[in-house]
């Protein structure tokens, strides 16, 4: 999820990490065990005058399968569930309105299951997870062919 945001104007940083669980400073291995309650997520620092939250949500929808509650493409498990986090009631309203519009668009035959939740403590992932698309371009491309096909078919 870093690359689609990282390359946009107005984005100061995109950090891979974990949020929403009950273990402080979890490791990747702990999150993969499905025992910490964490979701893998990205924290995006942005300039809303250049990159409004509405645009971030729009980019998000184009990167995920919002109908798959059990993961995303080849990444399976509750730690890969589709979720949009918000930091204000204004952002919450934007995300909910966008989700409703997507559901009503008829683009998907299945219901939109992406949840919209308040942002809680975010723990950055280990260094080797940061900027994965730049560090491991071949692995990144191979791992995301399903996502590219999905996007082409649905957007």
Automatic annotation (TrEMBL):
Give the species this sequence originates from: Enterococcus silesiacus
| Catalytic function, reaction form | L-methionyl-[protein] + [thioredoxin]-disulfide + H2O = L-methionyl-(S)-S-oxide-[protein] + [thioredoxin]-dithiol; [thioredoxin]-disulfide + L-methionine + H2O = L-methionine (S)-S-oxide + [thioredoxin]-dithiol
- Per the UniProt record, which EC number(s) apply here? 1.8.4.11
- The leader peptide range reads none
Q: What HAMAP family does UniProt report for this protein, alphabetically? A: MsrA
- Ranges for region Disordered: 1-22
| Enzyme class of the recorded protein, top EC level | oxidoreductase
This chain belongs to the protein called Peptide methionine sulfoxide reductase MsrA
Tell me where the transmembrane regions lie: none
What UniProt keywords apply to this chain's record, in alphabetical order?
Answer: Oxidoreductase
Instruction: Outline what the protein does.
Output: Has an important function as a repair enzyme for proteins that have been inactivated by oxidation. Catalyzes the reversible oxidation-reduction of methionine sulfoxide in proteins to methionine.
GO molecular function terms attached to this record: peptide-methionine (S)-S-oxide reductase activity
Domain Peptide methionine sulphoxide reductase MsrA residue range list: 3-141
Q: Is Transit peptide included in the keywords of this UniProt record?
A: no
* Pfam annotation, one family: PMSR
Q: Give the record's family classification.
A: Belongs to the MsrA Met sulfoxide reductase family.
| Lineage: superkingdom | Bacteria
- Would the keyword Lipid metabolism be found if you checked this record's keyword annotation? no
InterPro entries with a match to the protein in the record: Met_Sox_Rdtase_MsrA_dom, Met_Sox_Rdtase_MsrA_sf
